[in-house]
Amino acid sequence: MPNIQSKIASQNWESITESMHKNGFAILANILSNKESQALKMNYSNPDLYRKTVVMKRYRFGLGEYKYFNYPLPDLIQNIRTSIYSKLAPIANSWMKVLNINTVFPLTHQELLKQCHDNNQLKATVLILKYGKSGFNTLHQDLYGDVYFPMQIVLFLNEPDEDFTGGEFVLTQQTPRAQSKAIVLKPKKGDILIFTTNFRPVKGTKGYYRVNMKHGVSEIHSGQRYTLGIIFHDALS
């Protein structure tokens, strides 16, 4: 069986890059094995892995629960985080260039984390989320500090319409001087979704302009839904 780095490297990154430019998201199909997905879900109950638990209702974030991992991250998560970052950094830099934003992201994840740590952003931001019936996640952005990377990923650990119903992944796109557009996605178990953290460039008649985006999860109708979110930058708290 190919390891996770080779699975990621063998993806059609030209097509993924095109999708990120065009849509602000892309899906990497069938990256995690059933065994890997099951192991991540089973580890939800292991307190040694996590630094913080958030009950979403308490903060009006939605209805569900999530846990932030502590460092060091499990090898599988660390390898995915490092491997995918190196593929996304050139895309992020092209976005900054066309939007005339004076930011250049390093090409290795280790260098990005150094920038975070120099800014006192020291906390791991990788998190695992659990929803039951009626659970949902309000529209939001995951920034965590002044240093942030404009893309992130979600690993889907359950099969939709088998393990749960409802619970679609929702993106909203706010075009300037226009109504918001909703994008509803339904990745399968083992898929990885790449999407923009807070904005993406769109080409207009007078050049590129910035379109803001948020993400969330629609209401779960039945079953349990687990996902694992990987944000590439670290947090202040």
UniProtKB/TrEMBL annotation:
Xref: InterPro entries: DUF2086
Source superkingdom: Bacteria
Protein name: Prolyl 4-hydroxylase subunit alpha
Organism: Flavobacterium salmonis
